[in-house]
Amino acid sequence: MDLRVAMVRGAVLGCALFVGACADDRGATMGTGGLARAEVQPLAVEGGYGAYLAAHSARLRDDIDGAADNLERTLATDPDNADVQRLSLIYAAADGRYDVARKMAQLIAKGKPDDVLAGYVLATEAARDGNWKAADAAMKAIPDANLNSLLGPLLRAWIAVGERDIDGALARLKPLAARKPFLPVYNFHTALILDYAHRDAEAEAAYDRTVAGDGGHSIHSVQAAGRFFNRIGKPERTDQLVADFATERGDAPMTEALTRTLIERRARTPIVSTPLDGMGEAYLSIATSLANSDSWEITLALAQLSLRANPHLELARVMVGDLFEAHEDYDRANVAYNAVSLDSDVGYSVRLRMAKNLEHMDEHDEAAKALNALADRFPHRPEPLIELGDLYRGDSRFAESVKAYDRAFARIGTIEPRHWVLFYTRGIALERSQQWPRAEADFLKALELEPDQPLVLNYLGYSWLDKGMHPDEAQAMIERAVEQRPRDGYIIDSLGWAYYLRGNYQEAVNHLEQAVVLVADDPTVNDHLGDAYWRVGRKLEARYQWQRALDLKPDDKQAAALNAKLNDGLTGAAR
Prior knowledge:
There is one protein chain. By secondary structure, the chain is mainly alpha-helical. The protein folds into three domains: 1-29 and 146-360, no CATH class; 33-141, Tetratricopeptide repeat domain (Serine Threonine Protein Phosphatase 5, Tetratricopeptide repeat); 452-575, Tetratricopeptide repeat domain (Serine Threonine Protein Phosphatase 5, Tetratricopeptide repeat, Alpha Horseshoe). Helix content is 69%, strand content 0%. It has 31 helices and no strands. The chain has helices spanning 26-29, 49-60, 64-77, 82-94, 98-111, 116-128, 132-140, 148-162, 166-177, 183-196, 200-212, 219-231, 235-249, 252-264, 275-289, 296-309, 314-326, 330-338, 347-360, 364-377, 383-394, 398-410, 420-432, 436-449, 454-466, 471-484, 489-501, 505-518, 523-535, 539-551, 556-568. Helix 28 (505-518) runs antiparallel to helix 29 (523-535). The radius of gyration is 29 Å and the shape is globular.
């Protein structure tokens, strides 16, 4: 059966993107403490209810922009409602409305100076103004608990750097060293501070600890350490970092980008050039640790604060886009991704994701245009053309899909076992575009690369049966696929159809009934069950299944066949 297989997601983020996988210490990192969602008290003015209800509805839909808009309207009616102020702060920060967030933080801090998010906003704004004492005061007002037990030392350390107190900054980081889950973040930020201060011998030791620890081969740690080693005249260390990244991550486009930046160009400028940049890194490190938490608005707010501190931190833009994408706000995701330079280390990967998001938004022509442009911009990379082939295949434009896959294959040097999926997907497009000899060769090649792969066994076995070819071998293939995926409705359907085509109608019914339970909304599976019911004399049930298949919006050819069967039943010997 035609199961859509995604070849490239171009994943850039995850808990290992930055050093510091701290989610295991749940008491300190997963609990947001003062950042928990506020329970809103009834509004004092009746006219504010409409805006508040609209804000609540937007929150339920994960509509950050809509929630922020309507919370601002609510406050215009009831400006002294502390709970609405707090919600407005959260959503303004998450939406990147920094002026609104600053205003809300100032209002909240008057009555509740220990509010965590208000303190972060005020500290960031003070640092942007160059008022490091005010930034320090804002942070001192926040309790050292929950989220702030990790983020607080980082921010306070960079504030000390802003006050030109490097030793004081290092001392402020020390509490993190006492807790094993925090060591990666501690080592990374220690290295960044020492690198900024040009205390190279100490910085080298800190970078050594960073790259040797958890997350040490993440893209950001490689970027930071590689630039440092280039600067101090140890390029061979940088080369080894990139090689280790390639081995561990297996991400060819990202490896190429790091090679271009760190090896070919020998970039040496530190990733942190100012204390504000360091604050941006602090927010981003912790936002990454919280990426999979339930309070995604808080994670988004931290990522936006990272950009407020350092608007040039492109990995923070990627994280903002990733969070919007994860919550199916593909338009906002693409706005964030589009701000990432195509020449950056992650520029290529996010452009792939932008094209995929255009597909999610049903803007398929724009997605195809973007993929073709990316393929032209990177003439040696196959991924844009693989995505283009997948896009056309999903739109049933099979001949165009084959052409895109062919272009992708032309860019692949050595065929490796992982390429089985590309032979499989091109095989589907070839079979559907009536190019069976090439399709069969691709399916066989896929099985050579990945023996007993259930998707390939199923598709090739089903195709052989449908064409009256190799019936014994075809059924055996499908049975092996079922053994591996006994709950896959499409593969169960293939087995049932194998029995049907070989005349064992009762056995076909047994399997096809199971398939319909597993994939109730597929027109082909319901159509098959209808045929099997007819052959065993259950004609009323057969018509019911055909009508259900028709209601599931099959393509025009299948719809015509279903209508004919509803009118005349099965008139031929085979079907």
